Amino acid sequence: MSAALTFTLKQAPAQRVDMSPLVCQNLANMLLADIAALTLQNGKRKPRVDELFTITGDDAQNIVIKNSSDKLDFIGKELDGGCITVEGDAGAYFGMGMQAGELKITGNVGLYAACEMKKGYMEITGNVGDFLGGALPGNKMGMKGGTVLVKGNAGERVGDHLRRGTILIEGNAGDYCGSRMTAGTIAVMGQTGRYLGYAMRRGTLLLWQKPTLSASFNDCGSHTLGFLPLLFASYRKLNSKFADTATGFSRVQRYAGDMSEMGKAEILVKL
Fold first, then answer.
1. Residue 22 is assigned to a structural domain of this protein
2. Average pLDDT per block of 10 residues along the chain, 271 residues long
3. What DSSP state is assigned to residue 230?
4. Could you tell me the residue range of the domain that residue 263 belongs to?
5. 116 in helix, strand or coil?
6. Which of 8, 165, 195, 254 has its CA 20 to 30 A from that of 27?
7. Position 21 in a domain
8. How many domains, in total, are found in the chain?
9. Does 222 map to a domain?
10. CB environment 19-58: b (16+ within 10 A), e (fewer)
């Protein structure tokens, strides 16, 4: 019987580690000895995998990273199928460019999680840093598809340049949430910071708490929107507070903006 391919970090590294080689599609059909001999960028060094991790199991489609540290960057980069579960914290660029599969973590995550993600499902139990689902510096397209669920709080610039996909946040979101969005959906159950929806072009922000909006968003009054129960019905399968919102969230206050841009985006606040 196959067991999950498990990497247990021996001790927290002094320098950051590039974990991008350790994804399901790269390790499929590789022998354990060959996986152990792979090298990872660790500061100026390139240690073997077995120098940093104890390796057990053989199922490369189900990877587990135990005792994880916030010095481990690029976990799940360009993941294209399978499942990676992280026990502990992770560093920056968690799930960057993810194309398919599942990526789950029990702890906190650093900057640029899900940046330029294309498809798949990501679940973060703890908090996440700035630029969740955003674009890399200099790029104009952030997350392009998939679903991200954050059970904790999110930092600033959530969904910056978001192109498509869904970001669900059970906690709070920082300043500039939804900044420069082109399309997609961001839902926040907690509080939102300043400059909400800054330069939004299209897309939807769903809020449970009343926000502070700039003058470039127009109040369009209260509405009963029939698509909202259908939207939340699609979240019933999630292990989340969002699974309990399929009913009772059809009446909203709608704001249109950002009028300094196209003005085709909307902010919907639960009544």
1. no
2. 91 95 95 95 95 95 96 97 97 97 97 97 98 94 96 97 96 96 95 95 94 91 86 87 72 90 91 86
3. H
4. 111-270
5. coil
6. 165
7. no
8. 1
9. yes
10. bbebbbeebeeeeeeebeeeebbbeeeeeebbebbebeeb
